[in-house]
TrEMBL record:
A matching Pfam family: Phage_integrase
A molecular-function term among this protein's GO annotations: DNA binding
Domain Tyr recombinase: 217-400
Identification of the protein by name: Integrase
Stored SUPFAM superfamilies: DNA breaking-rejoining enzymes
InterPro entries per the UniProt record, alphabetical: CB, DNA_brk_join_enz, Integrase-like_cat_sf, Integrase_catalytic, Integrase_recombinase_N, Tyrosine_recombinase_XerCD
Core-binding (CB) domain sequence ranges: 109-194
Keywords recorded for this protein, A-Z: Chromosome partition, DNA integration, DNA recombination, DNA-binding
GO biological process: chromosome segregation; DNA integration; DNA recombination
Coiled-coil region: none
Length: 407
């Protein structure tokens, strides 16, 4: 790999004869295969040669943050600029991790085994999705860390301790809906804990949530004119816009969830039959939709001209090295960035707002709740009701109703 990057004979000799040459060359090839640019690879070559010299051919093969800081200090002592430290760390740490020489800092807690056991129960017994498990794990973990910090073991918890957790303003600032959600999560966790003998049997039942009224909030969907503005903002041949346009169309036309878009695979798009198969998370089964012409064109343009020919089965990949499938968080950033740039006012500026916009448009076109629920992949009709809280067409009809001579 060095031969293709280094044009100078002296530079090529230095890199080939330097310490850990095979390890460096192997990693550079890996980065090239992942889509790294030429100048990025050149930077990696130079910094890794520095790292190899500092480590030495007979040096240790176990590194942590402290050891890397020591290497960085020695690197900066040879050439110090505003970017040297960050550049050296950003190149060297992934290389050490690639070689298996990097030791990740691990912080263990006394409750770790209990938390892991609870997550297994959520997966195996309750059948929760990985996204739900990750979210609930994070909330329960925060609660257990708070207990650990205050010297409170699960076995000694009393209702007042849980009250203090919710009232600890230094630890968190939650709204009413967030408090209700966390109360539900902790109630289920403590019920499970009681069944395992970790805490008192009736502790979970002492948790009271703030009352949340069904359908109490107004829909937060942007208008369809705003959705069209978002799509129009991606009408260019820039690689980001080509990819983002296909993503935004799936969110707004099919009402897909961010995770459903992130996990969409190439084999789910049937070009011959002109259909797209979406694995709906809540229904836990695939649904087949006709491939709308505008969506087909956007997907084809992305796959044929932008998406790198890699081994990943997922449709949407990052456009910068390292190439990898997009995450739910990355899709949120795409939508949020477009909303912010266009100045679109909405209570929420993420992918779910486009899902709401899709549902609202279907309502205004006269679709029934059953039809909308089927389109969005809802499991029950109750989930669809939230999109029908304000039907502007129906309200206008009521407003125009002639009351005749009634006072």
């Amino acid at each position: 790999m060095f031969e293709t990057l280094l044009l100078s004979a002296d530079a090529l000799r230095r890199h080939q004869e330097g310490p850990l040459a095979q390890e460096r060359d192997r990693y550079i090839k890996h980065c090239a295969d992942s889509g790294a640019t030429y100048w990025s690879l050149r930077t990696k070559c130079n910094e890794l040669l520095w790292a190899a010299k500092l480590i030495g051919s007979n040096g240790t093969k176990v590194f942590d943050s402290e050891a890397l800081d020591d290497l960085t200090d020695r690197r900066v002592s040879h050439h110090n600029s505003s970017t040297t430290r960050a550049r050296f760390i950003n190149v060297t740490r992934p290389w050490l991790r690639f070689l298996g020489w990097w030791t990740e800092p691990v912080k263990t807690y006394s409750f770790q085994d209990q938390l892991d056991q609870y997550c297994l129960w959520m997966r195996n017994e309750r059948g929760f999705s990985q996204t739900t498990i990750a979210g609930w794990r994070s909330r329960v973990r925060d609660f257990l860390i708070w207990c650990d910090t205050h010297g409170l073991g699960l076995g000694k918890l009393v209702p007042s301790d849980i009250d203090n957790y919710f009232m600890d303003e230094d630890a968190h600032h939650w709204g009413r809906i967030t408090v209700a959600n966390i109360a539900t999560i902790l109630r289920i966790f403590l019920r499970y804990g009681a069944s395992q003998g970790w805490c008192k049997p009736l502790l979970a039942e002492t948790i009271r949530s703030p009352r949340i009224y069904g359908q109490e909030t107004l829909p937060y969907a942007p208008g369809w004119d705003d959705v069209q503005r978002v799509l129009a903002a991606t009408q260019s041949d820039r690689v980001n816009d080509v990819r983002d346009r296909a993503i935004l169309m799936l969110l707004s036309i099919y009402g897909m969830r961010a995770t459903e878009v992130a996990t969409l695979r190439l084999d789910q798009v049937d070009w011959r039959r002109r259909v797209i198969r979406v694995f709906r998370l809540k229904r836990r089964q695939p649904q087949e939709y006709p491939l709308v012409e505008s969506v087909a064109q956007a997907l084809a343009h992305y796959v044929d001209h932008v998406r790198s020919d890699r081994s990943f089965p997922e449709v949407f990949l990052s456009v910068h090295s390292p190439l990898r499938p997009m995450t739910r968080a990355a899709i949120y950033k795409i939508v949020n960035k477009k909303f912010t740039a266009l100045g679109i006012e909405a209570a929420h500026r993420g992918p779910h707002a486009l899902r709401h916009a899709c549902a609202t448009r279907l309502i205004n076109q006269g679709s029934t709740l059953k039809e909308i629920g089927d389109h969005l992949g809802h499991q029950t009709m109750l989930a669809t009701r939230t999109y029908a809280k304000v039907d502007m067409v129906a309200l206008r009809q009521v407003g125009n109703f002639d009351l005749g001579d009634l006072p």
